[in-house]
Amino acid sequence: MNPDPGKLAEYGARIEALALELGLDFYPVAFEMVPNSFMMEIAVYGLPVRMRHWSFGVRYIHQLVHQQMGNSRIFEVMFPGDPCHAYMVDSNSLAENTLVTAHVLGHADFAKNNQLFTRFMAMAGSQILEQSAARAHRIEAALSRYGQERVEAVLDAALALEPHIDVNSTLHRPRYPVSVAPPPDIAPGPFRQRFQNLPGETAPPAPPASALRAAIPPQPEYDLLWFIANYAPELDDWERDIFLAVREEAFYFYPVYACQIMNEGWASYWHARLLREASFLPHDLYVSAIKSHSDVVRPYAGERQLALSVNPYHLGFSLWERIIERDGVAAARAICREEDDFGFIRNYLDEEMVEQLDLFVYESRKDGETRIVNRDIHAIREAILAGKYNYGAPCIAVTQLHDDASVVLRHDHQRDGRGLELSQAERVMEYVGRIWHRPVTLHTVDFRGLARTVSHKGRPDSLV
To answer: Which residues 6+ apart lie within 8 Å of 126 measured at CB?
Structure first.
C-alpha cells in the first residue's frame, strides 16, 4: 500500500494549485487508488467496467507475461471527461504517485483543450465510465436471456470490427436516403436538337417522373459497425445495440489513439516542470520522482542502447521541450489545441531532432539480421505514423448491398498501402457472416499485391 496517503493528498492539492498558477486548464480530476490487479484489468479491458468477452482474457495473459518479464509497468490510467477519472497503483511509492498526479494533470489539460478530444467527447459524451457500465449491464441481461453462444457470436463480430469506424463522420448519423430525385429535364442543346431531327432518329425516352431508389451504400462506407447495426437483415434490437455500443466506445478512444505522442509528451513535460517548480517537495522525494521520470521518457528499455521502436513518451517530451524552449508556452498551446500526431510529427519533427534522437527506418530480414535502411526525414515521419492510419486497421469499405441482402466489401489497399493477412481476414469474415446471415464477399490483395477474394456464405440457418 502507498506508505503515506495523507502526504500524497497534501502534495497532490499543492501540485494542482501550482498547475493552475502556471496556466494549465483542466476539468476536475477524481483520483482513485487501486491494486495492481485492478489496474491490469483496466489496461486490458480499456475501462473499469466493460462487456465480458473471451478476447479480453487473452489480452490479460499477454499483459501479465509482459509485466512479469519486466517489459511493462502501468503507473496510471486516466479517462478524459468532466470530471476526468484517474487510477493510480496503491503499491507505487509516494514519489511515483506524486509524479503520477502531476502527469495526470497534464493529460487533463490536453484533453480539455485539444480540438480533436473536445469534438469527439462532445459526440460520445463525457461520462464514459457510467455509460460503459450501463452497456455492460444491458449485455449481461442479454446473456441471461439469449445465452452465451448467441451473445458471444455478436460480440465476436463487433469487437473484431472495433477499429472500423469512420472518424471523418459523426457518431450520431441518419440512415441513407431511400430515394433520390430524378435527373432534371434539361433541354437539349443546338447540336442535340439537329441530331434528333435527322431522318430515322427518335426522341429519347422521357425520364421517370417519380423518385429513383437510392443505391445502398450511395458511396463506399468505411464505418462497418454503423452499417451492420443499421442494415444487417436479421439483427434484433439488442444485437444492434452491441454494435452501436462498441462503435461509441471506439469514437471515445480515437483521440487517445490519434494523439498518443502529443498527449504523453505534453503530460511528461508538465509533470517534469511541476515537480521542478514544486519547492515544497522534500529533496529525496523529488530525486526519486525525477528518476522515475527518466525511466519513463528514455528512448530504450533496460540496458539496450539502441531502440527499434519509438517510445511515445520520449519522442513527445523531446519535441514539446524544444518547442517551448524555442517558441514559448503560448505557441506550444496553439499546437496542442490544433494538431493531432499526424500534424505534430510532420510539422515539428525536423532533421535536427531526427539526428538528436537518432531515429531511423529499419528492416528485419528472414535470416534474423536487422539493418538500417533509411534515414530520410520523410520516411522516418511516415514510419512513425504508419500504424496510426485508420485506427491502425486496414481500410475496408462496404461497396454494394444486393437485393438479396448479400453484401460486397472492398479493401482499399491503395489508401492504406498494405495487404491483408488472409487467415485473419477469413476469421473476421466468419464472424461477420454468422451475424449477417447472408453471403459476404471481401475483395482484397495479399502481401504480394495479388488480388484475393474472401467469402462467407452466412450461417447455415440463413434464409437465402
So the answer is: 27, 80, 81, 82
